[in-house]
Amino acid sequence: MKIDGVAWRPIRAEDDGETVTIIDQTVLPFHFETRRLVRMDEAAEAISVMRVRGAPLIGVTAAYGMALAMRDDPSDTALGTAYDTLHATRPTAINLRWALDRMRAALLPLPTAGRFARAWALAADMAEEDVEINRRIGAHGFDLLREIADRKGRVNVLTHCNAGWLATVDWGTATSPIYQAHDAGIDVHVWVDETRPRNQGGFLTAWELHQHGVPHSVIVDNAGGHLMQHGEVDLCLVGTDRTTATGDVCNKIGTYLKALAAADNGVPFYVCLPTPTIDWRVRDGVAEIPIENRAAGEVTDLDGALADGEVARVRVVSPGSDAVNPAFDVTPARLVTGLVTERGIVAANEKALAAIRTDDAAISLS
Ligand code: MRU
């Protein structure tokens, strides 16, 4: 996607063939900065402090992190250390393990001399696959928006957190149908959940949509139910960090409440996901998916721009109070209208998901 008319990706392999550049998402939207990742531990740091975030982008960054490790030391020991270090960065997004497993399976059988070249090429393949997967998700999701537009004109979509191009290599998942509909001339407007505590909606989704010229309004996280009751939301499109083999959807904290409100108001609730976000080993999302607990300071404090543009952190909770910060929740499959995947839109149940399962790790880019 474009920033001020220039095509960007949140991660990009450098022409030197041995380093990568990321957009540092911790300083958006008030500053735009890039950062060069040279060593594996820098990739791990970028994931854990959320310079890169979003399930698909976490996976691709980890793949490049593994490649950086192989450039410095292609031994089995270094490969194991890289796997463990990168895997420990964030616990919930399954794309991380999916990417690392795929890298390890490809690299371990090789002689050490060939490992870096193979790792670099495979990480690049995974990045390109992610772009194509998200393009296809958008093409399938486009039909949902077009059907509403044909019926009533303007389409009001509600989205939570940032499942946009910043969370992937390009297009985004939940935003891909939105961008494709907007580009095709459909009158689409997006309700952007602010998504406290880190404001990925108000900071990142709003910034992306603004850059692309998509009409949108940021709302506080508590406003969605009210808007749904008053017929102001035609459908919800969200992303996911891990979806179970039975269709339970783990996503940014607050997604579950939006699904409850959508069900109560008859608003379709769709989840956009690449199939690498499905954890085929997990059946009960609430019981089995590890939920990341992040620092209390993300709840008690907030970053923002002062009138003169300077970015400052302020306390927004009464001094002396503690806070807890579960970063994700699980929406049971029964609340999900459908799953928009690169292989089509399917019901959120075990049978429908099994029908699109393939053991091929890679997708065809043709
Ligand atoms: O904590 P984050 O910002 O990594 O959480 C991101 C989300 O919850 C996204 O909705 C999810 O990763 C899907 S991204 C296409």
Summarize the SSE layout with pairings:
Blueprint: E1 2-3, E2 6-7, E3 11-13, E4 20-23, E5 34-37, H1 40-48, H2 55-72, H3 76-87, H4 94-107, H5 115-152, E6 155-159, H6 175-183, E7 188-193, H7 200-212, E8 216-219, H8 224-229, E9 235-238, E10 242-244, E11 249-252, H9 255-265, E12 269-272, E13 278-279, H10 285-288, H11 297-300, E14 301-305, E15 311-315, E16 328-331, E17 338-341, E18 344-346, H12 350-355
Parallel strand pairs: 6-7, 6-9, 7-8, 9-12, 10-13, 12-17
Antiparallel strand pairs: 1-2, 3-4, 4-5, 10-11, 11-16, 14-15, 17-18
Bound molecules: 5-S-methyl-1-O-phosphono-5-thio-D-ribulose.
Question: What's the number of helices?
Answer: 12
The assigned structural class equals: alpha/beta
Biggest sheet: strands, sense, closure?
7 strands, mixed
User: How would you classify the quaternary structure?
Assistant: single chain
**Between the first and last Cα atoms, what is the distance in angstroms?**
21 Å
Shape: globular
Query: In CATH terms, what is the architecture of the largest domain?
Result: 3-Layer(aba) Sandwich
The topology string of helices and strands comes to EEEEEHHHHHEHEHEHEEEHEEHHEEEEEH
Rg (CA only): 20 Å
- Spans where pLDDT lies below 50 across 5 or more residues: none
Reported by name, the CATH topology of the largest domain is: Rossmann fold
